[in-house]
Design brief:
- The structure is a single chain.
- By secondary structure, the protein is an alpha+beta fold.
- The chain has four domains: about 5-230, P-loop containing nucleotide triphosphate hydrolases (Rossmann fold); about 240-370, OB fold (Dihydrolipoamide Acetyltransferase, E2P); about 385-490, no CATH class; about 495-625, no CATH class.
- The protein has ten helices and 41 strands.
- It has a six-stranded mixed sheet with strand order 6-7-8-3-9-10, with helices on both faces. The chain has a six-stranded antiparallel sheet with strand order 23-22-21-24-29-30, with helices on one face.
- Helix 2 (about 95-105) packs across helix 3 (about 110-120), helix 2 runs parallel beside helix 4 and helix 3 crosses helix 4 (about 135-150).
- The radius of gyration is 30 Å and the shape is flat.
- The protein starts with a strand and ends with a strand.
- The mean pLDDT is about 95.
- Bound molecules: adenosine-5'-diphosphate.
């Protein structure tokens, strides 16, 4: 039994191929995690890194509380089951299962106990004397599982274990493996390219594409709230339908307008998380609706389509069709206008019929046409709020508040502008007030829908805030973007400062021993770092690490002015940026420019800044990769 932690794991193969990028997950003890995605997305590579069969390029892998990056596979207390059963053909089932334990010099008596116990669990007691070739695929796979089981490992890794079996056997083994997981109370990590397998077995699923994690969630959340079009299309059969549409809000309704002019409408309340800028009828978006969330009718409700095929499955049917073009004509050639509908009863739907598809308005999905990310993020990324500058003040949300100096500078002569406000930049305060229309719990956060005219302002609030309350709040001004006529004139200040620098080592004699010390060098600043970090950088880049440039990222709050006599990076303040109650100094040092938070009273021209090496993250500048 064990929990696992993968933290910013990367795999770059020797040929330079980046197979896994920034993979992070906390796996709780006894979870059944499934890695799923198309072939080549990095599933097996990740699994093999966990097993210790592949080196980890960067990142930390912890089993329990132990860092195991460099631990031998045999010492990790992990058992792996492969797609090819990898059984020894000349040995009996019993010998195959006992082999690993004998290698470990376990007493025969205990080996026998373990093999018999595993054979019982897997229902292969009657086959112990057989050789693998005299067994079916399903039985062989059970022996392979048994060989892992007898080791009583902390973690089971399974790499496409069922892909050599026929469909019926796969379904049966799926149930068996799920039951095995329940009875063993062990952590399982299972790799498959088959989304049905993933959905039926996993407590949580990691969906991957081209080496990147797309979403980590429970099966139901992946199905109901896919983060992007890829996940939406990958999970569920038949696949979700996608259409190019535009959205137009009219009062409490949003009309979905198809390329051919067909329209369906959904209540605004269902899609209120979609940013207003997508609701003006101008912006192309992708509409997604699953085949099982469409009703077919002949009365003209919804999108008109011609039926091109009907598949009867017994318990229902799948209807395939094509939407009409803008003249209402149906062409079989156009690829983009297909529709698939699951229907329970299709007695009177025949090929060639012209019918209508009515989407369930509670099950609609919308994605940005370019980024393919959902427009209905659980926590909307930002709110846009109209503001008007007037001398040193601005009018926002019916309140007249101080216009921060930094905003004033960025605006120039403009007086009308938009504040782009992420929900986390809205904090309890005295500047504004709005009524709380609704509170939604999203994971462990509380999302407030603040009633702002006929739409909502989204804010993260603490649990004491209730629907019906009047919420008093302010903005953290430095976290806002400013737009004039949709052009960004001021960017939010992010949490990190990036500084470019080099890396060095020094060998020092300490009590007759030679000890290596490692340093981050930024301009005149030499910051000693913990040996672990030094060895990590060296293990990734070899001795070239002393020639390369690195990007050092430091949380802005961790940058401070150096104490008297302390080493630091010397710089000159080029200007101050006032954000109301927060002041930043723009510092120029070593040819680099960055902002640091300073005291309101601070006004020196020369600064020396310092930080703790534990607050510094190191990024490679050759491959986009966090090293430590
Ligand atoms: P999956 O298990 O999702 O099918 P893999 O983890 O096997 O994918 O592979 C991920 C990517 O890494 C693929 O593009 C594959 O070609 C590449 N790859 C796998 N092994 C190696 C290797 N030893 N050297 C270079 N590239 C590799």
């Amino acid at each position: 039994m064990a929990n696992l932690k993968l933290s910013h794991i990367y795999k770059v193969y020797d040929n330079g191929h980046k197979a896994v990028n920034d993979f992070s997950i906390d796996i709780a003890d006894r979870e059944f995690i499934v890695f799923v995605g198309p072939s080549g997305c990095g599933k097996s590579t990740t699994l093999r890194m966990i097993a210790g069969l592949e080196t980890i390029t960067a990142g930390d892998l912890l089993i329990g509380d132990t860092l195991v990056n460099d631990m031998e596979p045999k010492d990790r207390d992990i058992a792996m089951v492969f797609q090819s059963y990898a059984l020894y053909p000349h040995m009996t089932v019993y010998e195959n299962m006992a082999f690993g334990l004998r290698n470990r010099k376990m007493p025969e008596k205990e080996i026998k106990e373990r093999v018999m116990k595993a054979a019982k669990i897997l229902d292969i007691e009657d086959y112990l004397d057989r050789k693998p070739k005299a067994m079916s695929g399903g039985q062989r796979q059970r022996v392979a599982l048994g060989r892992a089981l007898v080791r009583d490992p902390k973690v089971f890794l399974l790499d496409e274990p069922l892909s050599n079996l026929d469909a019926k056997l796969r379904a049966a083994m799926r149930t068996e493996i799920a039951a095995l997981h329940k009875s063993l109370n062990t952590t399982f990590i299972y790799v498959t390219h088959d989304q049905v397998e993933a959905m039926t077995m996993g407590t949580r699923i990691v969906v991957m594409k081209l080496g990147y994690v797309q979403q980590i969630d429970t099966p139901m959340n992946l199905y109901n709230e896919p983060y992007n079009k890829f996940v939406a299309g990958f999970i569920g059969t038949p696949q979700m339908n996608f259409f190019d549409v535009k959205l137009q809000r009219e009062g409490d309704k949003v009309t979905v307008i198809f390329a051919n002019g067909d329209k369906v409408s959904v209540p605004y309340e269902n899609v209120s998380k979609i940013h207003n800028r997508y609701l003006n009828g101008d912006v192309q978006v992708t509409f997604g609706i699953r085949p099982e969330h469409i009703m077919v009718n002949k009365e003209g409700r919804g999108m008109k389509f011609v039926v091109t095929n009907v598949e009867h499955l017994g318990n229902g049917s799948i209807v395939y069709g094509k939407l009409g073009d803008h003249l209402g004509e149906f062409s079989m050639k156009d690829e983009g206008n297909s529709i698939i509908v699951n229907v329970v009863d299709c007695k009177d739907i025949n090929v060639g019929d012209i019918v209508y598809a009515e989407p369930n308005p509670n099950k609609v999905h919308f994605f940005d046409a370019e980024t393919e990310v959902t427009l209905m993020n659980k926590i909307p990324e930002y709110n846009t709020i109209r503001a008007k500058a007037n001398g040193d003040r601005m009018t926002v949300l019916n309140a007249n508040v101080l216009l921060p100096e930094a905003f004033k500078k960025a605006l120039g002569n403009a007086d009308c502008f938009d504040l782009v406000v992420p929900p986390h930049a809205i904090v309890a305060g005295n500047d504004f007030q709005l009524k709380v229309a609704r509170i939604e719990n999203v994971d462990d956060k509380h999302l407030a829908y603040l009633q702002n005219g006929d739409s909502y302002l989204f804010a993260l609030v603490d649990e004491s805030v209730q629907a019906g309350d009047t919420y008093h709040f302010s903005f953290e001004n430095e976290k806002l973007n400013l737009n004039v006529d949709d052009q960004e004139v001021l960017k939010a200040i992010d949490d990190e400062v990036s500084l470019m620098g080099t890396f060095s080592k020094k060998e020092l004699k300490e009590n007759h021993d030679r000890v290596l010390h490692f340093f981050y060098n930024i301009g005149n600043y030499t910051l000693e770092t913990a040996p672990e970090q030094g060895y990590k950088i060296n293990s990734i880049d070899g001795d070239n690490c002393y020639k390369y440039t690195y990007r050092y990222a430091i949380n802005r709050n961790a940058i401070r002015l150096a104490e008297e006599g302390e080493a630091g990076l010397d710089g000159r303040v080029v200007e101050f940026c006032e954000y109301g109650n927060i002041r930043f100094a723009k510092v120029e040092a070593d040819g680099q420019e960055f902002l640091i938070k300073v005291d309101p009273a601070f006004d020196s021209e020369m600064v020396r800044i310092a930080m703790d090496s534990k607050d510094v993250s190191v990024y490679s500048t050759r491959i986009d990769m966090k090293i430590c």
